[in-house]
Amino acid sequence: MNFRISAPYVFLILLFCGLVVFGRASFFSFLDWDDPTYVTQNSRVVSADKDAWLDVLNPFSALNGEKKEFLPLLESIYRVLYQVGGGSPVPFHLASILFHVLASFFFFLLLKSLSLKDAPSLFGSLVFLVHPFHVESVAWVSGLKDPLVACFIFLGLLSYARTQKLGDRFWWGSFLALLLAFLSKGVALVFVPLALLVDIGFQKRTLRKSLPLIWPHICLSMLFSVWILVIAISNQVVKAPLEGSPWFTFFTMTEVFSQYLAKMILPIELSAHYKPIPIESFWSQRFLVSVCTLSAGAFLAFRFRKKKEVFFPLFWFLICFLPVSNIIPLSTQMADRYMYIAIGGYCFFLAKIFVDRDRVGWGKGVLITFLLVLYGSMSFLRVGVWENDRGLWKDVTQKAPHNVMAWNNYGAAMMKDGDVERASHVFENLTHVAAWKKEAWNNLGRSKLLLFRKHGNPSDLRVAERSLREAIQNDQNYVEALNNLGIVWWERGLLERNPLFLVRSKRVFEKALNMDPAYGPAKRNLEVLNIQMDILNRKKGVQK
Predict the structure, then answer these.
(1) How far apart are CA 356 and CA 350, in angstroms?
(2) What percent of the chain has pLDDT over 90?
(3) Residue 33: how many CB atoms within 10 A of its CB?
(4) Cα–Cα distance between 11 and 207 in angstroms, integer?
(5) What does the pLDDT read at residue 475?
């Protein structure tokens, strides 16, 4: 297919399509899901002090619990966006869209370097741009690290593919890109195996010829891998295997792998929070079906091992899946954002099969157009789910009614919107779920406290007290519940004009601060309560 287009025009096309599909996300607010951790309550981001900036660059600050990852480039970008935008979410969303467009553009250049012509490279980059799997990473402020790390991985692969000898300018470009990728997200571990895959598939370089060029990249990857593991162990991020068994994890992740492949082709029932049901037996029907599916894929890969359009995308996907395959158990078993780079293999496959031909007939032309419109429309509709917390968790609960965490977050979002009655009903139902008892009782207490403030009914205050006592009984060190109980006693002391409850409230705040001296809400509540008690004591003295 004789079609040529210059790179600047490709970037403009990708930018236009990116704004059409994802542009309305720039008007969305911050979410309570990870955005406070990464941005709005991150002192290294919101503070204008130079010390905060130095803390961003300090790798050892990740070992003391202040942060669970060492991502200085990501936090630096967040910091600049926060200071420039005055805390508005708009610059963050625009940055996410821009980096996603840049990642798609670098992917276009990478496809061209892999012997694809302009037309298939453009088609592959457009599929990468508009695929619904990418909505989570683009519409969610905390997802910025995925487009960011992809930019540097694709740019690094592009430079590495042009490297002729150790130390030339393309080699240095690939090495610098890998370093910046690691400073953005740990998934940069996939760079070295992807580079070797490019060597084997397209550069005609054997492993013996590749190692002299890539051994510094391997050393850098090993250094960051060790540091990432040390940070994870130090902050107790590494979780136990599913149901305590590595075999159950293996069985379950086999099914997850199959689900990723299916959703990549037909991206329906996407969710912000998946909860895979553990597979506990080798003879489980779900496991056997997954094994059969993967075996068919492995057979096709072997059968057509000499065809780049088959073995290259399959191995690309497998390499990108390994870091999130729970070999080292993670808190999240499955997420759309995990497939951000992996989907590049699928895009290569489509470009090679449908467009990389001398002639593209009307049938293929219609199919190509339909696929882009379909993926773009699905992404456009899915972007709306990420507008606010309530819409996000409502979508999750509709697709997974048994996802208890999603119901808890949905109730919290309702409470934030002022729909306290419905939130209370959600939390009452959750109090019967063993795994979420303490959170449910705590949130029920909070919702009843808000109902008391809204309607002034003392019975709501008493229910709030009982609920918070239940939460504390489930976990004696539950600082948030202690703080909320202190607030309830404070309200009750003012309502009944009983100073005994104010004294109880003060003791509870002090107990919460003894457990966690850095817990801000208890600290602020104690300061205000002390001032209020001093005023009341002075009034009593004047009356006497």
Answers:
(1) 9
(2) 34
(3) 19
(4) 34
(5) 85
For residue 191, the tally of other CB atoms under 10 A from its CB is 28
Give the residue ranges of DSSP H helices in 356-498. Answer: 362-383, 389-399, 404-417, 420-430, 437-455, 458-474, 479-496
Comparison of pLDDT for 170 and 543, the residue scoring more: 170
Reported pTM: 0.87
Number of C-alpha atoms within 13 angstroms, CB side, residue 458? 5
**Cα atoms in the Cβ-side hemisphere of radius 13 Å centred on 482:** 21
3-state secondary structure 304-357: CCCCHHHHHHHHHHHHHHHHHCCCCCCCCCCCHHHHCCCHHHHHHHHHHHHHCC
Q: Which of 441, 333, 373 is nearest to 127 (CA)?
A: 373
pLDDT band at 19 (very low <50, low <70, confident <90, very high): very high
- Residues 6+ away with beta carbon under 8 Å from 345: 312, 313, 314, 315, 316, 317, 320
Q: How far apart are CA 97 and CA 95, in angstroms?
A: 5
Q: Are 195 and 217 in contact (CB under 8 A)?
A: yes
Please give the single-letter amino acid code of residue 389.
Answer: D
| C-beta separation of 499 from 506 below 8 A | no
**411/421 Cα distance (integer angstroms):** 10
**Lowest pLDDT segment from 32-41, 291-300, 439-448, 525-534:** 291-300
For 346-385, what is each residue's pLDDT tens digit? 999 998 887 655 566 677 778 888 999 999 999 999 999 9
User: Can you give the C-alpha Rg of the chain in angstroms?
Assistant: 27
CB–CB of 217/170 below 8 Å?
no
Residue pair 441/449 in contact (Cβ under 8 Å)? The answer is no
176, two tokens: 């610098």
Backbone angles phi, psi at 131, to 5 degrees: -65, 135
Mean predicted confidence (pLDDT) in 100-127: 91
Q: Give the mean pLDDT of the chain.
A: 85
The neighbour count for residue 408, using CB atoms within 10 Å, is: 20
The string of pLDDT tens digits covering residues 152-168 is 999 999 999 888 777 78
Let me know how many helices (H) and strands (E) the chain has, helices first.
25, 0
Which two tokens mark 254? 């086999």
Q: What is the DSSP letter of 358?
A: S
- Greater pLDDT, 295 or 105: 105
Residue 538 is predicted with a pLDDT of: 73
Share of the chain above pLDDT 70, in %: 92
- Give the integer Cα–Cα distance in Å for 92 and 100: 12
Task: Say if residues 62 and 236 touch (Cβ distance below 8 Å).
Answer: no
